[in-house]
Design goal:
Ribosomal Protein S8, Chain: A, domain 1; 2 helices; 23% strand; alpha+beta
């Protein structure tokens, strides 16, 4: 099986949430978004893994209610990542 690779995702800022709990995700995601808004980055990536989807669900819940977030979606090539577009 050939893995499809998107080289453009390598240049985007990333935060990996493997091993985090929900409370840690809330704080770290807020800081990550704030830092990238200050740096004027329009797209960022959160790596939440595939697993049982607990961290992914928490990230998506937080993003859904965040006014700083324009849009977010699961990466087409890696379902363990969410791509976030900032306002």
């Amino acid at each position: 099986m050939v893995k499809v690779y998107d080289p453009f995702l390598d240049i985007l800022p990333k935060k990996d949430f493997h091993g985090f709990n929900r409370d840690m995700v809330k704080y770290e995601l807020d800081v990550f978004i704030n830092d990238n808004i200050k740096l004027k980055n329009k797209k960022i990536i959160v790596v939440h893994g595939k697993g049982e989807g607990i961290i992914k669900d928490e990230v998506h819940l937080l993003l859904k209610n965040d006014k700083r977030v324009k849009n977010f979606y699961i990466d087409t090539f890696n379902t363990g990542c969410t791509i976030i577009e900032l306002n």
